[in-house]
Amino acid sequence: MARAMKKMVVVCGIVLLLNLWCKAQADPQVPCYFIFGDSLVDNGNNNQLQSLARANYLPYGIDFQGGPTGRFSNGKTTVDVIAELLGFDDYIPPYVSARGQDILKGVNYASAAAGIREETGQQLGGRISFSGQVKNHQNTVSQVVNLLGDENTAADYLSKSNIHLNNMLMYLLQAYTQQLRLLYQSGARKVVLFGLGQIGCSPNELAQNSPDGSTCVQRINSANQIFNNKLKSLVNTLNSNSDARFIYVDSYGIFQDIINSPSSYGFRVTNAGCCGVGRNNGQITCLPFQTPCQNRDEYLFWDAFHPSEAGNTIIGRRAYSAQSASDAYPIDINRLAQL
To answer: 177-190 pLDDT, tens per residue?
Structure first.
């Protein structure tokens, strides 16, 4: 179990994903949007690092306007979809390039291979851990104070913020909570915690541990469910002990719906990546300039670990506006943004 849980830090792509939205100047519901995470939402912060965890080459970005950006997908990520639904007219820039007034609409701090533990992903080279991302956000908050003129105005600006967090492991809950407190101290008040998806159904796990390449790896999924139950309980605890508002998104259940009835979502293939190497296209991620599948919208997974744009779109839409009562607890992102 310990080995399986250690693997999940890398496999799930996000140890945690965190979006903060705050009141700003335009039409979006929550015009300021800050993102923390790893490869599921990294949009270019690793591009200049000495790291194997990079995606700034084709076929990554093959369907994204402008081509490869560092996103680990053929197109949009889940947070891109949510940004659109919130009403943004552009995607949130990576921390590495965000400058000046741009930070007032938000910053993406995510770094592929990052985790809550400092050593997570070290075998892949350079990355920005979650604590490093929090420090980068604290630097951004200081810049917001300078841009808005004083601390009181900046505090009011940031107090409207939402936080969206994904995927972390049970033995890290204490450290995770401590980092949440730091973000709370930086002004975050609306928080979205994304549960773990069905990592045991990813092409990588199927390639390595599924006898037939189709049956999900139950020991991994069981660990996911244990963690998710703890995470949902944490939402209740946090809501009872602060003036922030936390919600939980059931990524596991959304994946389960897709896998149980893929054709109803337009998918033909749920057990293999659109590109990659080896069994299930799941043993190695997409190689530079590899030719991917042509019918990308029919694949749930883009590569060994990461959903396709089509998969990300479903997850993002159901997180924003719950299709099932269990998709989000106690409310969805749309309702949270309106508070």
So the answer is: 888 888 888 888 88
State pLDDT tens for residues 63-106: 999 999 999 999 999 999 999 999 999 999 999 999 999 998 89
Return the residue matching tokens 């923390």.
Answer: 36
Of 251, 306, 327, 332, catalytic = 306
d(CA 35, CA 93): 10
Give dist(CA 286, CA 69) in Å, integer.
15
| Known active-site residue 137 | no
Give this prediction's pTM: 0.90
Cα 214 from Cα 57, distance rounded (Å) = 29
* 150 given a catalytic annotation: no
User: Residue 4: CB partners within 8 Å, gap ≥ 6?
Assistant: 219, 220, 223
Q: Is 308 in the active site?
A: no
Q: Which of 42, 257, 303, 327 is catalytic?
A: 303
The DSSP code for 100 is: G
